[in-house]
Backbone:
């Protein structure tokens, strides 16, 4: 479902001649997906040389010439353009990038790096933990049935100093999990503005029914109608509320999980 949401958000931005940068490409999962949606080339960065090596080796021969891998730290305002120019890219993507800091200042720095690389009318699409203000309520909801027996399973570990969010562990299945900082919705929005974004901000809805996942979810986790309603009221991905708009330069579409 996350992949379907990313595809829905990014494909309209992949116009002829568009220049794309991916932050925290990791093992190249989304790099390969984006390549399959367009004939454009991509600059993909990550802080880990090991991850970049895996991503590079995972590409087919035909795709390898369309990706430029770059080692970098997303909290340091650096140009990832081939010529090191500012505002080079038309589209930026960060799948599970903004969750790698537990400091509000770090989040602002990440947004500043993205803004530094985007053209004045460029767009950033990000995947972050679900946009919510009351994370204590989410902690309670995901610690009891039926959410405590579903995948992905969310575990809220400790509130981050300053009350800006929670340290969480996201369990994809019984064997695979990763840590993520889940910031409050207002913190994402304020950090984006401080980091240089002045365009519209759009939280993308989860779309569990729209994207055709309702029946699959009910079948996979053997949910009753009441249990599904609880699941729908506590989205893993996206926002179930109104979409937000900011006027000005640069646009941003945040989705998750969370978009």
Residues:
């Amino acid at each position: 479902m996350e992949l379907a949401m990313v595809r829905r958000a990014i494909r309209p931005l992949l116009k002829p001649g568009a220049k794309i940068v991916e932050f925290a490409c990791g093992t190249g999962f989304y790099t390969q997906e984006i390549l399959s949606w367009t004939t454009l080339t991509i600059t993909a960065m990550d802080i880990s040389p090991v991850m970049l090596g895996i991503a590079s080796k995972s590409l087919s021969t035909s795709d390898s010439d369309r990706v430029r891998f770059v080692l970098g730290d997303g909290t340091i305002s650096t140009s990832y353009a081939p010529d090191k120019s500012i505002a080079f890219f038309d589209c930026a993507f960060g799948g599970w990038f903004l969750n790698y800091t537990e400091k509000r200042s770090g989040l602002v720095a990440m947004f500043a790096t993205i803004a530094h690389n985007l053209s004045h009318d460029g767009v950033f699409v990000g995947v972050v933990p679900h946009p919510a203000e009351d994370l204590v309520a989410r902690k309670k909801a995901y610690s009891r049935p039926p959410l405590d027996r579903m995948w992905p399973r969310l575990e809220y570990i400790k509130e981050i100093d300053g009350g800006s969010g929670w340290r969480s562990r996201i369990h994809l299945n019984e064997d695979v999990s990763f840590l993520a900082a889940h910031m409050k919705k207002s913190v994402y929005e304020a950090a984006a503005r401080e980091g240089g974004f002045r365009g519209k901000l759009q939280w993308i809805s989860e779309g569990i029914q729209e994207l055709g996942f309702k029946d699959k979810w009910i079948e996979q986790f053997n949910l009753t109608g009441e249990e599904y309603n609880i699941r729908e009221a506590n989205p893993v991905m996206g926002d179930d509320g109104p979409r937000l708009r900011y006027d000005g330069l640069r646009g941003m579409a945040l989705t998750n999980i969370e978009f």
Notes: The chain is about 30% helix and 25% strand. The domain at 1-132+184-220+237-255 is CATH 3.40.50.150 (Rossmann fold). The two ends are 11 Å apart (CA to CA).
